[in-house]
Amino acid sequence: MIIPFSALNALEYCPRRFYYEYVQGEMLVNAFVLEGQLLHQGVDQPGLLTEKGVERIHRLYLCSERLRTAGYLDLLEEERGKLVPVEYKRGKEGRWLNDHIQLCAQALCLEEHLPHLAPLTHGYIFYFGSRRRQQVLFLPELRQKTQESIQLALELAREPGPPVPLQGKAARRCRDCSLLPLCLPEEVRALQEQEQEDTTGQAMPGCNLC
Known about the structure:
The chain is of the alpha/beta class. Helix content is 39%, strand content 23%.
């Protein structure tokens, strides 16, 4: 089993979304997903461009059998012998760990196939909403988190059913999720709460000795 880079992004955002999209193959499109697809049309044109001494390879396929992850990198830049992966995202700039994990996984694949250029120190995420790049440092903590995410994805992919919906503050992410009509997180949470009440509210069995 090979885990797509984009699946790692979905997993960090919501394990339940990861399961529906990449294990069960359920994909729904809302306005946010469609906007992202349209914005990527100009980026996802494969080819090699050279401008002002910088080489840019668009839509580069990467795969690692060791890490068991693969997918397309939006852009790879080369300048003075250094490789810099670049990922494009629809929204505004922020410290989004799910985006950082996706970019780091791509960097790990590059290092595996080009060990003479390792380690890669950083990459960039370009946010269309902010029209600027954000630098992401490939620190040991992010590298470890990325590899842990790959292992978690492999484990969840073997499960017979999806994880429970997000809880607490994280549940706010459900509002804008394209899979909301399929996932029905509020309904599932309500059923879980009812089942818990039914279980804890059961009368204790009587004592025959009393």
